[in-house]
Structures are given as structure tokens and as C-alpha cells.
């Protein structure tokens, strides 16, 4: 294609504009120029070379990025098979560390891993972030490991009532109950500093002794939320409870943590679409699964505790179920972390 440009009046300059497909221009055998030898023995190099030359582009995705797979495939189409793995350095922006990483993946051969190994890897990708980012602050495993049988107190906070559950690391439910919360939640005077501090102190004194106290992190308040005032008051009560807990237990081996909602959703499969199923339904599912089914959340609940639970109305059962879920989630993630997520 030609394009006419006028450099000055009365003059015409003819220039050719290239419109063809731009292709990568490879440098031939750059490894010879720099004197590079990949840090693998000859047998390993031949193994890698065979896979690089024979695997289709999509199968190379198992070992490297789609971009690199495309470059390798284009090089083979244009220049034929690679003679040595070091020739990978001919690819644009492909460095020595990229070559070592690719060959390492090819030698490991992720495609030949057993199903169990793949399942473990998949579980680890889910569980590790739930532990490191879903529990705030991140638990100190040295502290937990130093305790023979740590106890957890899950706390469900609402303006109408406070549900709590105490459980040990062996998943024995020691106690659960519901405490009264704000007498008149619609009155702003109930959330004045002095009254709020007094109420929160009474609630903390009524909670059982435990090594770790667990609250669920609240969801963000959106602009123009019709329940904004209610949610702000809930934050005030929850913050007061956590602060007094930390102050009153600071001389003992006690931790106060929040559990992010996505942790509970992931571990107990609480989400159906955009809706969250009730904690009662989740508890029924947990209890109906026996230990022999490999359920890591099966909990031992005494007849007396079941009686107390069944005496509650649906709202009360939701408080107790929610507080128990926090204990089970925290205990499970900490035990997985202690075992190295294997």
C-alpha cells in the first residue's frame, strides 16, 4: 500500500506503508552466543525436549502459560522441532529462569499426578487462603500447638440476643446458650457509651471461659442501606464486646478472632446462588453425616445440650447454630494448618 505525503506545497513524497501480518523474528541459537547450558543432565534434557516437540499447544498449558505455549508452537511451525532445550532462549522475552521453570514442570509432569495428589492440591488452594486471609488476625500456630486441648467460644451477635457455643478441639460441645442483648434496640439512648459499655461488660462476664473467642466479620454497609442505623448499632455492640473481651482476658492465653463470611460459606456450602441457607439447615446436614463418612465437622452434642437447643425458637436456634459453625471452622482450619495442609 502506498500513501502520499506533502512535505511542502507542490511536492509529493511517496512512502510504502506495511500492512502485512507482523511476525516474531527469532534469533537463531542464542544459547551458543551466551554460552548457556541448562542445569539438567542429558537424560532430563532429552525428556523435556521430547515433550516440547511432541505436545500440542493446549497440552503445553499444563506446564507453562498460554502465551509461552503459543510461542513454542509458532517456533515449531516456522523452524521445525527444537534441537536442544536451550533453544527455548530463542523465544522472545524468554529468559533462563523461564527455561528452568518450564523444564522443571515438564520433569515433574503434572499430567501424570495421581487423582489423590490433584485433589490435595485443589483442597490446599482453597483451604490455605481461608486460613491465612479468612481468620483475622491470622492465628499463631505456636500458641495453639502449645495448648493440650484448646477451647473455642463462638459468639453470634445481634441486637436482640447473643448466642454462644463452647467447644474443644476434639469437637466436644461443652455448652451453648443465648444471652439477652439490647432491651430496646430502636432507642438510640441504649447505644450511648456508658449504657453500651455496661451492657457489653455484663455479656462478657456471662460468656464461658475459653482460649479463643470467635466472631463473624460483618458485611460492608452499602450507601443508602435502609438498615444502616441498625447495622451501625450492631457494629457498636460487637466492637464493645470484642474490646472488653481483649482487655479482660489480656493476662490469659486468649485470642479474639473474626471469621470472614466467605470462610463459613466455603466450608459449609452455605451459598445457594446469591442466597445463604440457614445455619440450622447446615447443622442438620452436619449432624446427619457420621464420623465414618469422613466429615471433619461432626460434633459431639449431649442430650442435655440438644434439649436446650430444641427449646429455642427458630431465631434462637439460628444464633446457636451460627456460633457453633464459627468454632468448627476455626478448629478445622487451625488443625489443617498444623498438619501442613496435607
Break the fold down into its secondary structure elements and pairings:
Blueprint: E1 2-5, E2 13-16, H1 30-34, H2 42-54, H3 57-60, H4 66-79, H5 96-108, H6 115-134, E3 135-136, H7 141-146, E4 151-157, E5 161-168, E6 173-180, H8 193-206, E7 212-216, H9 228-248, E8 255-259, H10 261-268, E9 271-272, E10 275-276, H11 279-288, H12 303-310, H13 314-338
Parallel strand pairs: 4-7, 7-8
Antiparallel strand pairs: 1-2, 3-8, 4-5, 5-6, 9-10
Helix pairs in contact: 6-13, 8-9, 11-13
Give an overview of the whole structure:
The chain is an alpha+beta fold. The protein folds into 2 domains: about 25-110, AF1531-like domain (DNA polymerase, domain 1), CATH 1.10.150.280; about 125-340, Ribonuclease H-like superfamily/Ribonuclease H (Nucleotidyltransferase, domain 5). The protein has 13 helices and 10 strands. It has helices spanning about 30-35, 40-55, 55-60, 65-80, 95-110, 115-135, 140-145, 195-205, 230-250, 260-270, 280-290, 305-310, 315-340, and strands at about 1-5, 15, 135, 150-155, 160-170, 175-180, 210-215, 255-260, 270, 275. Strands 3-8-7-4-5-6 form a 6-stranded mixed β-sheet, with helices on both faces. It has a two-stranded antiparallel ribbon with strand order 1-2. A two-stranded antiparallel ribbon has the order 9-10. Strand 7 (about 210-215), helix 9 and strand 8 (about 255-260) form a beta-alpha-beta unit. The longest helix is centred in the C-terminal third of the chain and has 25 residues, at about 315-340. The chain starts with a strand and ends with a helix. Mean pLDDT is about 85; it is low at about 1-10, about 10-20 and about 20-25.
